[in-house]
Protein backbone atom coordinates (compact mmCIF):
# COMPACT_ATOMS: atom_id res chain seq x y z
CA UNK A 1 0.00 0.00 0.00
CA UNK A 2 1.31 3.45 -0.86
CA UNK A 3 1.65 6.17 1.74
CA UNK A 4 -1.19 8.04 0.06
CA UNK A 5 -3.62 5.11 0.17
CA UNK A 6 -2.58 4.30 3.73
CA UNK A 7 -3.14 7.92 4.74
CA UNK A 8 -6.59 7.83 3.13
CA UNK A 9 -7.47 4.63 4.98
CA UNK A 10 -6.60 6.17 8.33
CA UNK A 11 -8.40 9.42 7.50
CA UNK A 12 -11.50 7.38 6.65
CA UNK A 13 -11.31 5.92 10.16
CA UNK A 14 -11.13 9.44 11.58
CA UNK A 15 -14.14 10.42 9.45
CA UNK A 16 -16.12 7.52 10.93
CA UNK A 17 -15.33 8.84 14.41
CA UNK A 18 -16.41 12.33 13.29
CA UNK A 19 -19.74 10.88 12.15
CA UNK A 20 -20.16 9.24 15.57
CA UNK A 21 -19.51 12.61 17.23
CA UNK A 22 -22.13 14.26 15.02
CA UNK A 23 -24.69 11.58 15.89
CA UNK A 24 -24.11 12.44 19.56
CA UNK A 25 -24.57 16.18 18.97
CA UNK A 26 -20.86 16.96 19.16
CA UNK A 27 -18.97 18.99 16.57
CA UNK A 28 -17.98 16.25 14.09
CA UNK A 29 -14.23 15.90 14.43
CA UNK A 30 -12.50 12.53 14.63
CA UNK A 31 -8.89 11.44 15.10
CA UNK A 32 -6.74 8.34 15.17
CA UNK A 33 -3.16 7.78 16.33
CA UNK A 34 -1.16 5.25 14.32
CA UNK A 35 2.10 3.50 15.17
CA UNK A 36 3.72 0.95 12.88
CA UNK A 37 0.62 0.84 10.69
CA UNK A 38 -1.74 0.03 13.58
CA UNK A 39 -4.34 2.33 15.12
CA UNK A 40 -3.43 2.62 18.80
CA UNK A 41 -5.66 5.54 19.73
CA UNK A 42 -9.11 6.76 18.70
CA UNK A 43 -10.92 9.93 19.60
CA UNK A 44 -13.90 12.06 18.71
CA UNK A 45 -15.04 15.38 20.06
CA UNK A 46 -16.70 14.99 23.46
CA UNK A 47 -16.62 18.52 24.87
CA UNK A 48 -20.39 18.83 25.23
CA UNK A 49 -21.19 15.37 26.56
CA UNK A 50 -18.20 15.39 28.88
CA UNK A 51 -18.51 19.01 29.98
CA UNK A 52 -14.80 19.14 29.20
CA UNK A 53 -13.30 21.95 27.12
CA UNK A 54 -10.19 19.82 26.51
CA UNK A 55 -12.08 16.83 25.07
CA UNK A 56 -11.18 17.55 21.45
CA UNK A 57 -10.81 14.55 19.14
CA UNK A 58 -7.01 14.90 19.00
CA UNK A 59 -6.67 14.99 22.78
CA UNK A 60 -8.97 11.98 23.20
CA UNK A 61 -7.02 9.99 20.59
CA UNK A 62 -3.68 10.87 22.19
CA UNK A 63 -4.97 9.93 25.65
CA UNK A 64 -6.09 6.58 24.25
CA UNK A 65 -2.73 6.01 22.52
CA UNK A 66 -0.74 7.01 25.61
CA UNK A 67 -2.74 4.56 27.72
CA UNK A 68 -2.12 1.83 25.11
CA UNK A 69 1.64 2.49 25.07
CA UNK A 70 1.93 3.21 28.79
CA UNK A 71 3.82 6.38 27.93
CA UNK A 72 2.86 10.02 27.46
CA UNK A 73 5.43 10.31 24.65
CA UNK A 74 3.99 9.22 21.32
CA UNK A 75 7.28 9.02 19.45
CA UNK A 76 7.14 7.50 15.96
CA UNK A 77 3.36 7.97 15.88
CA UNK A 78 1.18 9.71 13.32
CA UNK A 79 -2.04 11.53 14.12
CA UNK A 80 -4.84 11.73 11.57
CA UNK A 81 -7.55 14.28 12.31
CA UNK A 82 -10.43 15.55 10.18
CA UNK A 83 -9.91 19.23 11.07
CA UNK A 84 -6.78 21.34 11.40
CA UNK A 85 -5.81 21.39 15.11
CA UNK A 86 -6.36 24.42 17.32
CA UNK A 87 -3.67 25.97 19.57
CA UNK A 88 -4.43 23.64 22.49
CA UNK A 89 -4.27 20.51 20.36
CA UNK A 90 -1.20 21.71 18.45
CA UNK A 91 0.62 22.22 21.75
CA UNK A 92 -0.41 18.79 23.00
CA UNK A 93 0.72 17.19 19.73
CA UNK A 94 4.14 18.76 20.15
CA UNK A 95 4.39 17.83 23.84
CA UNK A 96 3.48 14.24 23.01
CA UNK A 97 6.23 14.23 20.36
CA UNK A 98 3.89 13.09 17.59
CA UNK A 99 6.14 12.60 14.55
CA UNK A 100 3.60 13.30 11.83
CA UNK A 101 0.24 15.07 11.66
CA UNK A 102 -2.17 14.58 8.77
CA UNK A 103 -5.32 16.66 8.80
CA UNK A 104 -8.30 17.03 6.49
CA UNK A 105 -10.11 20.36 6.41
CA UNK A 106 -8.30 23.63 7.02
CA UNK A 107 -9.72 25.74 9.85
CA UNK A 108 -9.58 29.44 8.89
CA UNK A 109 -10.91 30.52 12.30
CA UNK A 110 -8.83 28.57 14.83
CA UNK A 111 -6.36 26.42 12.88
CA UNK A 112 -2.81 26.54 14.22
CA UNK A 113 -1.00 24.48 11.62
CA UNK A 114 -0.88 27.22 9.01
CA UNK A 115 -4.34 28.79 8.75
CA UNK A 116 -4.35 31.32 11.62
CA UNK A 117 -0.98 30.51 13.17
CA UNK A 118 1.64 27.87 12.44
CA UNK A 119 2.78 26.54 15.78
CA UNK A 120 4.29 23.48 14.14
CA UNK A 121 6.77 25.68 12.27
CA UNK A 122 7.65 27.94 15.22
CA UNK A 123 11.48 27.78 15.28
CA UNK A 124 11.73 28.61 18.99
CA UNK A 125 9.91 25.41 19.96
CA UNK A 126 11.99 22.32 20.63
CA UNK A 127 9.89 19.78 18.72
CA UNK A 128 8.59 20.04 15.19
CA UNK A 129 5.91 17.70 13.94
CA UNK A 130 5.77 17.06 10.19
CA UNK A 131 2.44 18.35 8.86
CA UNK A 132 0.39 17.38 5.82
CA UNK A 133 -2.93 19.18 5.43
CA UNK A 134 -5.85 18.83 3.07
CA UNK A 135 -6.23 15.04 2.90
CA UNK A 136 -9.85 14.25 1.99
CA UNK A 137 -10.51 17.92 2.75
CA UNK A 138 -13.82 17.98 0.86
CA UNK A 139 -15.21 15.03 2.85
CA UNK A 140 -13.87 16.39 6.13
CA UNK A 141 -15.27 19.84 5.45
CA UNK A 142 -18.64 18.52 4.25
CA UNK A 143 -19.42 16.70 7.50
CA UNK A 144 -18.76 19.95 9.38
CA UNK A 145 -20.79 22.06 6.94
CA UNK A 146 -23.74 19.66 7.15
CA UNK A 147 -23.61 19.61 10.95
CA UNK A 148 -23.62 23.40 11.28
CA UNK A 149 -26.31 23.82 8.60
CA UNK A 150 -28.62 21.60 10.66
CA UNK A 151 -27.76 23.56 13.80
CA UNK A 152 -28.53 26.87 12.10
CA UNK A 153 -31.89 25.57 10.85
CA UNK A 154 -32.81 24.40 14.35
CA UNK A 155 -31.81 27.76 15.84
CA UNK A 156 -34.06 29.83 13.54
CA UNK A 157 -37.36 30.87 15.10
CA UNK A 158 -40.35 29.11 13.62
CA UNK A 159 -43.02 31.44 12.23
CA UNK A 160 -46.49 30.11 11.65
CA UNK A 161 -47.67 31.79 8.46
CA UNK A 162 -50.79 29.62 8.34
CA UNK A 163 -52.10 30.60 11.76
CA UNK A 164 -55.87 31.04 12.21
CA UNK A 165 -55.40 34.78 12.67
CA UNK A 166 -53.30 35.18 9.53
CA UNK A 167 -56.24 36.51 7.51
CA UNK A 168 -57.30 38.88 10.28
CA UNK A 169 -60.48 36.97 11.13
CA UNK A 170 -61.44 34.65 13.94
UniProtKB/TrEMBL annotation:
Enzyme Commission number, as recorded: 3.5.4.33
Cofactor note: Binds 1 zinc ion per subunit.
Gene Ontology molecular function terms on file: tRNA-specific adenosine-34 deaminase activity; zinc ion binding
A GO biological-process term: tRNA wobble adenosine to inosine editing
Entry keyword Lipoprotein: no
Active-site residues from the entry: 58 (proton donor)
InterPro entries: APOBEC/CMP_deaminase_Zn-bd, CMP_dCMP_dom, Cytidine_deaminase-like, tRNA_aden_deaminase
Swiss-Prot/TrEMBL catalytic activity: adenosine(34) in tRNA + H2O + H(+) = inosine(34) in tRNA + NH4(+)
Keywords: Hydrolase, Metal-binding, tRNA processing, Zinc
Cofactors: Zn(2+)
Family the UniProt entry places it in: Belongs to the cytidine and deoxycytidylate deaminase family. ADAT2 subfamily.
HAMAP family documented for this protein: tRNA_aden_deaminase
Subunit structure: Homodimer.
Function: Catalyzes the deamination of adenosine to inosine at the wobble position 34 of tRNA(Arg2).
Protein name: tRNA-specific adenosine deaminase
Amino acid sequence: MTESSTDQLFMQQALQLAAEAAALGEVPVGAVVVKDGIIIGRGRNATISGNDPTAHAEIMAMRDAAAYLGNYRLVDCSLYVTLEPCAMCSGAIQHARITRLVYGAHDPKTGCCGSVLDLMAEPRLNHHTQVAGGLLAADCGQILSDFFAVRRRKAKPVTDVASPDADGGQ
